[in-house]
Design goal:
Elements (H helix, E strand, L loop, with lengths): L2 H7 L1 H7 L4 H7 L4 H4 L3 H19 L10 H20 L7
Helix pairs in contact: 2-6, 5-6
C-alpha cells in the first residue's frame, strides 16, 4: 500500500466515527484514484493492523494533562473494529 493509498484508507475510520457505515465510508472514496488502486487483501491486513493499533493505544494508562485521549482512542478502535467486521464477516475461516 503506497502512502497516498494509506492516506485515503485512513479516512474510513474517521467517517465511521462520525456515523457512517463501513460500506458508506468506502463508497464515498470510490472515485478517488488512490482508493481504486488498493488491493483488497492488503486493505484487509491494513484494517486489522489499524484496529489493533487503536485498541492497544486505548488501553494504555492515561497520560497526564490529556484527559480525553483514551476515550478518543477507544472511539477510534470501535470504528476500526466495525471496519474489520465489514471485511471479515463474509470470509469463511473454516474451509
Amino acid at each position: 500500500m503506497t502512502l497516498d493509498e494509506q492516506d485515503v484508507a485512513d479516512l474510513v475510520p474517521h467517517l465511521i466515527m462520525v456515523g457512517h457505515t463501513s460500506a458508506a465510508a468506502e463508497s464515498y472514496l470510490a472515485a478517488v484514484p488512490a482508493w481504486q488502486r488498493v488491493d483488497t487483501e492488503v486493505l484487509i491486513s491494513y484494517v486489522i493492523a489499524y484496529a489493533g493499533y487503536w485498541t492497544r493505544a486505548s488501553r494504555q494508562p492515561a497520560p497526564e494533562g490529556v484527559p480525553h485521549l483514551r476515550s478518543y482512542q477507544r472511539h477510534a478502535a470501535t470504528a476500526a473494529l466495525a471496519w474489520v467486521r465489514h471485511h471479515t464477516d463474509a470470509i469463511s475461516f473454516l474451509n
